[in-house]
Design a protein that fits this description.
Blueprint lengths: L2 E5 L6 H10 L4 E5 L13 H13 L5 E4 L11 H18 L5 E5 L9 H15 L7 E5 L12 H10 L6 E6 H6 L8 H11 L5 E6 L1 E2 L10 E2 L8 H9 L7 E4 L5 H14 L2
Parallel strand pairs: 1-2, 1-10, 2-3, 3-4, 4-5, 5-6, 6-7, 7-10
Antiparallel strand pairs: 8-9
Helix pairs in contact: 1-2, 3-4, 4-5
Length: 276
């Protein structure tokens, strides 16, 4: 089963996103939990969450992905910034408990000069604080491009966070194709090699979702500029191999390409055409 979707606006509520996904041929999607450049969240409606659960069951949706706002940085050197990240993540996770089969994805953060080890320790501590023992939502660390002082540009950094966190069973990884290429992993020429390295360093069972994005940058550029599928340095054949790879089938594959809904619909149809 190919679970293909895109990033959708949550402005109309949960069920509205499900209906929009159906209208463009998607059977998964991603959404921001709140203003991605701020911190404000819309009023929560449990009935709306249940309506989305019902719609997804009726139409055979796969897991969906909630994305934390870009403004959180759990490994900042500023105490108030770290506190804001923990408060935001804790509130998001309380809301997401009402959604079935939903992952919570976040950018690990930037250590801003403290060093990678200090950043990893702070991220793990934040996860220990926000993950309730009885919660069901799995939190995903996103692979990063490695620009500046980002944590997560190397697989080893994500593994160290997973190892340091107490509730490691509630954690996984979301692989962003643009990010890993920009970080220097050769998914264009050697997808199998990348997956073998991921399995060796982290374990393929930890990979729970994919962001499918072409890149405007050369591999190893340590930048982060997404391109539409086939319009960047990765090319369409890379994505054909991804959707057909036996190790990746069944994972939600979410587009974050620079598109509006018609463009997303065309890319989703293309991915389905690739699927053998």
């Amino acid at each position: 089963m190919l679970y293909a979707g895109c990033h959708l606006s949550s402005a109309g509520g949960y069920a509205a996103m499900g209906r929009t996904a159906l209208s463009i041929g998607a059977n998964t999607f991603q959404f921001f939990t709140r203003n991605p450049r701020g911190g404000r969240a819309r009023a929560f409606d449990p009935a709306d969450a249940q309506a989305l659960n019902d719609l997804r069951r009726a139409h055979g949706f796969g897991p969906i992905v909630a994305h934390a706002p870009y403004t959180i940085n759990p490994c900042s050197k500023e105490p108030r910034t770290r506190e804001f990240a923990r408060e935001t993540m804790a509130d998001d996770l309380k809301r997401l408990e009402f959604l079935d089969g939903c992952y919570y994805n976040f950018h690990p953060g930037s250590h801003v000069g403290q060093g990678v080890k200090a950043g990893i320790a702070a991220i793990a501590a934040a996860l220990d604080e926000v993950l309730e023992p009885a919660g069901k939502t799995v939190v995903l660390l996103e692979t990063m491009a490695g620009k500046g002082t980002e944590v997560g540009g190397r697989l080893e950094e994500l593994r160290d966070i997973l190892d340091a966190a107490a509730r490691t069973e509630r954690l996984g990884v979301c692989v962003d194709t643009c990010h890993v290429s920009d970080a220097g992993y050769d998914i264009l020429g050697d997808l199998d090699g990348f997956l073998a390295e991921f399995d060796r360093v982290i374990g393929l069972s930890r990979m729970r979702a994919l962001h499918l994005n072409d890149s405007k940058n050369l591999p190893g550029s340590r930048k982060d500029r997404h391109a539409c599928l086939g319009e960047g340095t990765l090319g369409l054949e890379t994505f054909r191999r991804i959707v057909n790879h036996p190790a990746l089938r069944g994972l939600p594959m979410v587009l974050e390409t620079p598109n509006e809904l018609p463009g997303y619909a065309a890319e989703i149809a293309m991915l389905r055409g690739f699927s053998e």
